[in-house]
Design a protein that fits this description.
The protein has about 300 residues and is an alpha/beta fold. The protein has eleven helices and twelve strands. Helix 5 packs across helix 11.
Length: about 300
């Protein structure tokens, strides 16, 4: 069967969707995954096929099934309407409820990681025996995972500012770890670097180079973001700072060993006083993240 998969647009979203694509490909299906970023990482995924999202939807005529990871974009809505008889719509939402649109197709359980949900989906809906979490990524032979155990990747940004731990606390944590003999390295885009003059982030020619650099590091500390998922699927332990337990349960990196830090559950989040949503960063101290890192390190 020829299958097209359309993940959500983030890097992490794409890497997670590769779990489903890889299982379908292993089962003998011809799979193309359409994404704005993953084609730049094609050399690291020899078993998968990545394509840019098409301008002309007629290209979808050749596919037997179209799997959409639902998001409210005009482009996706037009694609969904183009060939409704071929559609499979998955709606990843971090909730234990099942009363939202398209839940019945994926039957996702919001209390476990999305990656594990996709493995269960592949087994149940596609009858794939021994479905696995492997998303198909393969590093070049000269890249050695964990080669620099003292190097810690810091990723202090994400797709939305509301998901980010405070800048001042990232800098304080980096200073503390540096004093302890570690090498914190911030990963930032050129545009993001303008807002972080306090650090000098390395420059990379492409996403494959970032992947190699991350893979050879000892740990990753950051927000819920694509770099965290990249680190995890490469086998690098992660410490992820999230604003809520519900989000952490579902969206956490879930390949390599990892832990999540969340603010206390007692923080008020009543209507008109959304402290947990708007001020959660204030309730996650540097000391808590530092201690969680030490505990993660000692578990390995």
């Amino acid at each position: 069967m020829k299958i097209a998969i359309f993940p959500c647009i983030g890097l992490g979203d794409g890497l997670i969707a590769c779990v489903l694509a890889n299982n379908l490909a292993r089962a003998g299906h011809q799979v193309d995954l359409f994404h704005p970023l993953l084609p730049k990482m094609q050399p690291l995924f020899p078993r998968l096929s990545f394509l840019a999202r098409p301008d002309d939807l007629k290209i979808l005529e050749d596919y037997n099934k179209l799997i959409f990871f639902y998001e409210k974009l005009n482009w996706m809505q037009k694609a969904i309407e183009a060939y409704p008889e071929k559609n499979i719509i998955l709606n990843p939402i971090a909730t234990p409820n099942c009363d939202y649109p398209y839940w019945e197709e994926g039957e996702f359980d919001g209390t476990i990681p999305f990656i594990d949900n996709l493995v269960r989906y592949a087994e149940k809906k596609w009858a794939i025996e021994n479905a696995m979490k492997d998303n198909g990524i393969q590093l070049p032979e000269d890249v050695i995972v964990g080669k620099y155990p003292k190097r810690i990747i810091f990723h202090p940004t994400s797709s939305r500012a509301g998901k980010n731990w405070s800048k001042e606390k990232f800098l304080r944590l980096a200073d503390k770890l540096k004093r302890e003999g570690f090498e914190p390295v911030f990963i930032l885009t050129e545009e993001e670097q303008k807002d972080w003059p306090e650090v000098q982030a390395p420059k990379f020619p492409d996403l494959c180079a970032i992947a190699a650099f991350v893979a050879e590091s000892g740990f990753m500390i950051g927000n819920d973001s694509g770099i965290g998922h990249l680190a995890s699927c490469l086998g690098v332990p992660t410490l992820t700072i999230c604003r809520s337990a519900m989000s952490a349960n579902f969206w956490r990196p879930a390949w390599a060993r990892g832990e999540v830090i969340i603010p206390p559950s007692w923080i008020p989040n009543l209507k008109g006083m959304r402290w947990r949503d708007k001020k959660w960063q204030k309730f996650v101290p540097v000391s808590k993240v530092y201690q969680a890192f030490l505990e993660l390190r000692d578990l390995l």
